[in-house]
Amino acid sequence: MVGSGDRHEADVIQIQGRPVSRVASTGSGVAACLSPTDGAELSSLIIRDTSGSHELLYRGNDWRPTDGWGGRAPWLWPAAGRSYGQADSSGAPVPASVFHWGCGERVLPMPHHGFVRSKRWHAEATALNDGGAYAHASYENSGEDHGAYPFNYRLDTVVAVCDSTVTLTMCIAADRDNTQPMPFTIGQHITLDLASWWGKDWLHGTLSGAGRLGWGIDGLMLADDPLELPPQPVTLSDRMLGNILIPAVPGKALRMMSPDRTKYIDLSYTVSSLPSADAALWVVHRDTEGRFFCLEPWVGWPNGLSSGRGRIELDPGDVWSISFQLNMMSVGHEDTMEVPLPGVIHINPAVVDFMPRRGRRSTVKNERVTEDS
Fold it and tell me: What is the pLDDT of residue 232?
């Protein structure tokens, strides 16, 4: 155990042969895991209530090979979604099967959802502070990344737990020596297994707070024609929630409510800046087999790295950040109507001290690894 307090605890455990940082609130029963080995993804999200302990992520802390989407909650960077680049100015052919983007006069490969989710990050710290419990990991570009993304940078991510709230923060620092602004889009692919907490009828749950406008997603996973959402709350089984983009208002929460209205999850996010008024999105995806539901915060549109729509351009030496917050509650049926949607999120102070300022490197060292019992 790295740290344990009256209300929170933090430790590093071994799961499937990899060290995983676990942070938890003993009072609320909420726990989260960060896996530095696997792109510093949120690898587990657990809530414990009177009915037991429930893993809220599809394939939480499970890295066994599988067909299709691997689940959990990886960061998507420097491209969220698929990238379809511009024509190569030299006339060199680009295979249609290879996702790519146009960087100046070059056409460069870009994996689906970027590449940092497949990288091994450095575990910086797993500990307690006045704001609760946190886990921190970092990644700095290596030479092999330049073939797809010719920029220098440092990424820091923190998963923090404070009572019933989990906050994920990503901080992106562009190197001072970059010769031009560093372009990127970003997303957080949280993959929820709501059946584990709400039961097999989870699709009768609802989504509220999403407004009335959205965009469909076509066969290339690009934005399609605008459409009008049904009156809210919208049932999760509604056909429009199968694959859709919804405008996001940073700081304004969406609520997912269980069918019996006794359990809910509020999701919201804030950013340090937006490149355009329409850059902030929620990307909604419901698995066709009913295994999971995704409500992903994105900044930048599908194919935004190439098209420029919603793309961030980070000047050399500058820092940009996004914080994604989830608040999970299990309440009495008579209480659910009395819990209003929050107007704005408040970032857990656990993330503040570990974000770099204009490229300053953290001096926090990694903690000792202990075995999971």
Answer: 83
Token readout for 299 is 């900044």
The rounded average pLDDT for each run of 10 residues, N- to C-terminus, in the chain (373 residues) is 69 95 93 97 95 95 93 97 66 60 87 94 91 92 88 95 93 94 98 97 95 81 80 91 92 94 94 94 95 97 92 96 92 52 43 40 32 33
Reported pTM: 0.87
Asked whether 108 and 144 are in contact (CB, 8 A), the reply is no
Cβ proximity of 188 and 75 under 8 Å? yes
Residue 81 sits in which domain range? 77-114+135-354
The CATH number covering residue 108 comes to 2.70.98.10
Residue 43 CA to residue 63 CA, distance in Å, equals: 9
Question: Residue 316 is encoded by which pair of tokens?
Answer: 């050399």
- 3-class secondary-structure state, position 283: strand
CB hemisphere CA count around 40 (13 angstroms):
28
Backbone Cα Rg of the chain? 20
* Position 177, amino acid: D
Residue with tokens 């309440």: 331
Q: Rounded distance, CA 342 to CA 268, Å?
A: 9
* 280 lies in some domain: yes
Contacts of 201 (CB under 8 A, 6+ apart): 259
- Distance, in Å, from the CA atom of 98 to the CA atom of 84, rounded to the nearest integer, reads 9
- Would residue 190 count as lying in a domain? yes
- Confirm whether 193 is domain-assigned: yes
Alpha carbon distance 148, 111 (integer Å): 9
Q: 281 phi and psi, to 5 degrees? A: -135, 155
